[in-house]
Write a structure and sequence with these properties.
Number of domains: 2
Radius of gyration: 18 Å
Shape: globular
Number of helices: 8
Strand order of the largest sheet: 5-6-7-3-8-9
Order of helices and strands: EEEHEEHHHEHEHEEHH
CATH superfamily of the largest domain: P-loop containing nucleotide triphosphate hydrolases
CATH architecture of the largest domain: 3-Layer(aba) Sandwich
Length: about 240
């Protein structure tokens, strides 16, 4: 069995005495899409921040493959109109890169024409593509996205997920994503993790959608969520797991 990109083992996270996560296990392998779902306040963003090292874990262990490159897009980014910054300059803040790298990622996410635009003038969909471009700059092994389509209308959301599927299809990059869109989760994910402070259930979409914990969390919405999905690779994570 290959070494996982990330192996999260029994972690707990406390912030100012409040326990946000406990008993969380998560494995991410090369080339797979893993999506984390759960209600507001479930600790989804906290888990992503723990994996990238932006927040300390209280106990447990997070192992990363040696030399792992991670690309990350946060849930929100604050842009001040009084401090203008162009798309080109925003990407340049990522540090030194090979010649042509910024132009290449802008072409990949189909926003080359926005290179000289001001970040504060971008639409929601354009901004998400630019954030994705920055996350892709160093050709990551693992792309971590925190609700990347939050605030987008359905057509823009669909375009973003099609773009993400194309990028993933053309590389061995793994994707770890938090999403509120259960339809997309079930259509595009290899594995789903239901989180509510702890892992309520995890496994392949078909297994998770039939799990009582999933139905308890999402109620009637859960009945609409399952779509068939097919990939040209396989993973050894088929069963749901419970506390």
């Amino acid at each position: 069995m290959k070494t996982p990109l990330v192996d999260v083992r029994d972690i707990e996270v406390k912030v100012r005495g409040r326990r946000l996560l406990h008993d969380v296990d998560l494995r991410i392998d090369e080339g797979e899409i893993v999506t984390v779902i759960g209600p507001n306040g479930a600790g989804k963003s906290t888990l992503l921040k723990a994996i990238i090292g932006a927040i300390d874990i209280t106990s447990g262990e997070i192992k990363k493959r040696q030399g792992l490159q991670i690309g990350y897009t946060p849930q929100k980014i604050q842009l001040e109109k009084t401090m203008p910054i162009s798309v080109e300059r925003f990407l340049a803040l990522a540090g030194p890169l090979p010649k042509g790298a910024r132009g290449e990622v802008l072409a990949t996410v189909d926003v080359s024409d926005l290179r000289n635009s001001q970040m504060s003038d971008l639409s929601g969909g354009e901004l998400q593509r630019v954030l994705l471009a920055r996350a892709l700059l160093r050709k990551p092994d693992l792309l971590i996205l925190d609700e990347p389509t939050q605030g987008l209308d359905e057509p823009a959301e669909a375009r973003f997920y099609r773009l993400l599927a194309d990028i993933r299809h053309n590389s061995d990059m793994a994707v770890l994503m938090v999403s509120h869109n259960l339809h997309v989760v079930m259509a595009e994910s290899d594995r789903v993790v239901c989180l509510n402070g702890h892992v309520c259930c995890s496994g392949a979409p078909a297994h998770v959608s039939a799990d009582p914990s999933y139905k308890e969390l999402f109620g009637a919405r859960a009945e609409l969520a399952l779509y068939e999905h097919h990939h040209d690779h396989s993973h050894d994570h088929g069963e749901c797991s419970h506390d």
